[in-house]
Amino acid sequence: MSNPVAPEPLIRLRDLCKTFGAQRALDQVSLDIYPGEGVALLGAKGAGKSTLVKILSGTLAPDTGELWVEGQRQRFISPLSARRVGIVAVHQNPDDAIAPGLSVAENLLLDELGQPDADFLLNRKSLLQRAEAIAAGLGLDLPLQHPVERLGLAERQLLVLARAFALHPKLLILDEPTAALSETDAERLLGLIDSQRARGVAILYISQRLSDLQRVTNRAIVLQEGRLTSDLSTRHLPTAAYTLFGDVAEHLAVTPDRALPVPFLERFTRAGFIRNRAEGKAVQEQVVGLQVEAGGLGVQEKGGTHSDR
């Protein structure tokens, strides 16, 4: 019986380095990403996340190292060259990727409109039909003929994501896509991401939401001072570790003497153990008291002493 053949990585990075002046933003970063895989990218401010994303999406070139896509070595000179081999990045602010003054349909097809052989500008009916087909294929109900300025934030985010899907990416890089969305809109967007993964699209996901990471990704890589220091399963990523390694650390300006408590870790200290026992006993006494009161009310109601409410 032959052994199963290991899958080939979609993306292979080998010893990527990038320096800005005296600062080394990336230091010998090597990474494999496989088709249909969801990978969380974690790291505090200055860890090198943005630099890695820019190199992958063609905005920056590495100083040294290699980048391979489906077994072919690549050297991107622009985001367009990255998109041509299937790497598409969607950044946090959707307005950065929207062209005001155009319709929703035109924005949805913006990448195609930029091609030399595009005839949409001369054939408005063809443009609308193509936009309708893309929106319908993703299950989106967008007002395609309206000016893009009429869209709310959630619809603009969905529009930008839909445009990325229309490029048939092999690797989709998403930076905080649900940060400004309501729970309902975030669920719609995450559903679209799920459908893309099911089709074999790999996802590189940056987020401060642990629930998003556990929904979208299966493993997490951690950058610290430009080096890849950890590669772990997202399913087992504890909140404490995420707070330590993730973007949340950028926003918690907490000094040691005013540190926030971490209840899960406190249980394993003597003080925490004693406090948890005391709190547990108090809760038990409260529950018993409520049960006694409920029993007393039941007896009184049987005796008819309480009027109907």
From TrEMBL:
Quote the SMART domains the UniProt record gives.
AAA (SM00382)
Protein name per its UniProtKB record:
Sugar ABC transporter ATP-binding protein
Has the keyword Ribosomal protein been applied to this entry?
no
Keyword field: ATP-binding, Nucleotide-binding, Repeat, Transport
Upper classification of the source organism reads:
Bacteria, Pseudomonadati, Pseudomonadota, Gammaproteobacteria, Pseudomonadales
Classification via SUPFAM superfamilies:
P-loop containing nucleoside triphosphate hydrolases (SSF52540)
Which is an annotated GO molecular function term of this record? ATP hydrolysis activity
Segments forming domain ABC transporter = 11-250
Q: Which Gene3D superfamilies match?
A: P-loop containing nucleotide triphosphate hydrolases
Sorted alphabetically, which PANTHER family does this protein's record hold? CARBOHYDRATE TRANSPORT ATP-BINDING PROTEIN MG119-RELATED (PTHR43790), GALACTOFURANOSE TRANSPORTER ATP-BINDING PROTEIN YTFR (PTHR43790:SF9)
